[in-house]
Write a structure and sequence with these properties.
By secondary structure, this protein is of the alpha/beta class. The chain has seven helices and ten strands. The chain folds into two domains: 141 residues, 3-Layer(aba) Sandwich (Cobalt-precorrin-4 Transmethylase, domain 1); 104 residues, Methyltransferase, Cobalt-precorrin-4 Transmethylase, Domain 2 (2-Layer Sandwich). Strand 2, helix 2 and strand 3 form a beta-alpha-beta unit. It binds S-adenosylmethionine. The site of S-adenosylmethionine has 21 residues, from strand 8 and strand 10.
């Protein structure tokens, strides 16, 4: 008999994003840990509760909310992230020992897909490696914000035969990478699209994708960068938080195309 953890992708704000696999996994849970804190987290926590209300058909799992510690913003970025993950791992370890019996299953409802810019898998692996609490775990895929972005704009993610780099606003703001013409940007706290200096670049931008607040804009970057910046500012002022993601495509010189 061992504890089990199910890391369940729940999509990006629309309960309809829940897959049958995610719903089945949710219904197999005895306990759920739900992170809270801040305006954005309040929306995310509420959505998780709504998902439980809507999809759990049997006995409601025991729900334990916990505030997520804040990541240190000063000093070395990598070290800050490591410390932050260690702190969250310690919380999970304690909560597992206190709240999950040896034969029970815990569900962690992860925004979007757990494999994309989310460290739940890494953190759970930290807890397991520490060896103070034994458990098995699996991962249920979910709809990512990139899928939601492409669906809302009715575009494929990649152009034929071309790679796409998925990166952060922080990285893009340090310079456009040489090797790619297409970049998908997440976690952009600095409006890095404003640093791209190419009159022919095209942007597909989306905020609150999948939610009732969804906003999308697309067009030639040099023509709509100001509109996106103003739309972000107004939306953040209205809702108290924003989550946005975007794809920028720069023209490609001619060349053989391959693939689908
Ligand atoms: C910590 S990452 C989590 C990504 C998530 N695992 C996924 O699969 O989309 C958070 C970033 O994802 C993007 N994001 C997540 N949900 C979004 C949404 N509903 N609309 C727009 N962007 C979103 C934003 O770039 C945000 O800063």
């Amino acid at each position: 008999m061992t504890r089990r953890i199910r890391i369940i992708g729940i999509g990006t704000g629309n309960p309809d994003h829940m897959t049958v696999q995610a719903i089945d996994a949710l219904n197999a849970c005895d306990v759920l840990f739900i992170p809270t804190k801040g305006d954005e987290k309040a929306f995310l926590a509420t959505l998780r509760h709504d998902i439980c209300e809507r999809f759990i058909t049997g006995r409601m799992p025991r729900i334990h909310e916990f505030p997520v510690p804040k990541r240190r913003a000063d000093g070395d970025y990598g070290a800050g992230v490591t410390d932050w993950h260690t702190a969250i791992a310690a919380i999970y370890e304690r909560m597992l020992l206190e709240n999950l019996d040896a034969d029970e299953t815990l569900g962690l409802l992860v925004w979007g897909d757990p494999m994309l810019y989310d460290s739940t898998i890494r953190i759970i692996d930290l807890v397991r490696t520490a060896g103070r609490v034994a458990f098995d775990y699996d991962v249920i895929p979910g709809i990512t914000s990139l899928q939601a972005l492409c669906a809302s704009h009715r575009i494929p993610l990649n152009r034929i035969g071309l790679p796409v780099q998925v990166t952060t606003g922080r990285r893009l703001s340090a310079g456009w990478p040489e090797s790619v013409r297409d970049i998908a940007v997440m976690l952009d706290g600095v409006q890095a699209f404003e640093t791209v200096d190419d009159p022919d670049a095209v942007i597909h931008w989306g905020a609150y994708l999948g939610t009732p607040m969804e906003i999308t804009l697309s067009g030639r970057l040099c023509e709509i960068a100001g509109t996106i910046a103003e739309t972000r500012r107004a939306a953040r002022a209205e809702h108290g938080w924003i989550m946005d993601t975007y794809l920028i495509r720069r023209p490609v010189e001619s060349g053989g195309e391959e693939g689908e």
